[in-house]
């Protein structure tokens, strides 16, 4: 493979964290992955927007609590100005306001800083491919929050969902990741992804957090 082809396949990533002691080691660790090119490190949301404006960026790994402009506002502006850039939140905060604020602003993934390097690189790759990744703590928090609220009447599920697609939605609503769904249904992860893509397209579901909400509204979770 040519150097040009290899460069095209690399994911261009910006690492944003206001603490240099976190930002710099994280950037160095991510750069060890063959398919990740850390193109910039940012200390606040303004620097993130400047880095994205300066050249192609695929994914921003975003801290939430930063000076000048925080991660939620930076995520919101990226969604408006550069919707092609995926945001994966990496933060110490897993409270309702942080999670819902970041996902509502357009973040495609949400990890806590307990996540390991493999979890982070997997989330970056998934986000670049248009998938949502929430770590288990965040999924559990979303489920707990949704179940303690009386859901407003939502859009009903379409009648053309297959029984298998309903099963998959039920398991998403229970907080299972793709691997857990595959093991539960005795199918491959690739087949799970196909069912999820079909389910999301039919039901107009935006992301995994939206799928959890829809499952709860439909009484499936």
From TrEMBL:
Name positions with the PTM 4-aspartylphosphate: 63
Q: Where is the Response regulatory domain?
A: 12-128
Tell me the SUPFAM superfamilies matching this sequence: CheY-like (SSF52172)
Q: Which UniProt keywords apply?
A: DNA-binding, Phosphoprotein, Transcription, Transcription regulation
Q: Biological process (GO) annotations?
A: phosphorelay signal transduction system; regulation of DNA-templated transcription
* HTH luxR-type domain sequence ranges: 154-219
Q: Which residues form the signal peptide?
A: none
What is the protein name given in its UniProt record?
A: Response regulator
- Source organism: Streptomyces typhae
